[in-house]
Design goal:
With 245 residues, this protein is an alpha/beta fold. The chain has a single domain, classed as Rossmann fold (3-Layer(aba) Sandwich), CATH 3.40.50.450. Helix content is 39%, strand content 20%. The chain contains 8 helices and 9 strands. The protein has helices at 26-32, 53-74, 86-98, 147-158, 172-183, 196-205, 212-218, 232-243; strands at 2-7, 14-19, 41-46, 77-80, 104-109, 134-138, 163-168, 188-192, 223-227. Strands 1-2-6-5-4-3-7-8-9 form a 9-stranded mixed beta sheet, with helices on both faces. Helix 2 (53-74) packs across helix 3 (86-98), helix 2 (53-74) runs parallel beside helix 8 and helix 6 (196-205) crosses helix 7 (212-218).
Length: 245
């Protein structure tokens, strides 16, 4: 287990970073970078691929006007994949825009990242989102390798406080994330109308015919679909209720 700081090239602050190799190291590692105690915890999973700029603007508003302020008001930990892409980028930008102080914790497989002075042959490697406050580097070299680690980090950080996973958009990895949240006994808010995996799971919850995996996840009893077309209030209310349960 090794701790260091990675200075962002595009942001003045530093990300408090630690690398772990085994699940058993996580609790101690999180304490070493200042993440301890018990707080409501908000897990953010999904993506933002294949969306028009107008739709992305709508999602930006959701994050800036509702999700980041909700995390701030709840004093929550927010846990995601930490890269400068999709919803992770939206949350980082929203935290910056509202002047948020809530811990924003990225959990990423080291082999999927573009890091200073570290060579990486993974063609889809991504840079870190510069507004995250903490980064947990975990083993792996493919997207999805971080998924069980995200779920475990959130469980440790919540420490018996309420926690919720929020799915916005998403691809194949998002299905893994939802499954790992279910295994962790964490409720999942599915933002219906945000695209791709979120819409597929929402359809499964309505009883529509979808693939076997989506149907299986929908029957877990852990998923709640909230229709984005009903306004941001409904999404915020569902998350807030679960964080205050």
């Amino acid at each position: 287990m090794k701790e260091h700081c990675l200075s962002s090239l595009s942001h003045a602050s530093a990300v408090s970073t630690i690398q772990v190799h085994q699940m058993a190291e996580l609790a101690k590692a999180l304490k070493e970078i200042g993440l301890h105690g018990s707080r409501p915890t908000f897990v953010l999973v999904g993506g933002a691929s294949g969306l028009t700029e107008d739709y992305l603007d709508c999602l930006r508003q959701l994050f800036v006007e509702r999700l980041a302020p909700l995390a701030e008001e709840a004093g929550a930990y927010v846990v995601d994949g930490g890269t400068d892409a999709g919803i992770m980028s939206l949350m980082g930008q929203a935290r910056l825009e509202i002047g948020g102080t809530f811990p924003l914790v990225g959990v990423a497989a080291i082999g999927t990242l573009i890091l200073p002075n570290i060579k990486n042959s993974f063609s889809d490697a991504a840079p870190l989102e510069p507004n995250h406050t903490h980064l947990v580097l975990v083993p792996g070299c493919q997207w999805g390798d971080e998924s069980p680690w995200i779920a475990k980090v959130a469980t440790i950080l919540a420490n018996n406080a309420p926690s919720v996973t929020v799915l916005v958009n998403g691809g194949k990895v998002a299905l893994q994330d939802v499954r790992n949240s279910i295994i962790a006994d964490r409720p999942v808010v599915v933002v219906d109308g945000s695209g791709r995996t979120a819409d597929k799971l929402a359809a499964a919850l309505r009883g529509d015919e979808v693939d076997i995996e989506a149907t299986e996840l929908a029957t877990s009893g852990k998923l709640t679909a909230i229709d984005l077309s009903n306004g941001f209030n409904s999404v915020e209310r569902a998350i807030a209720q679960m964080l205050s349960a």
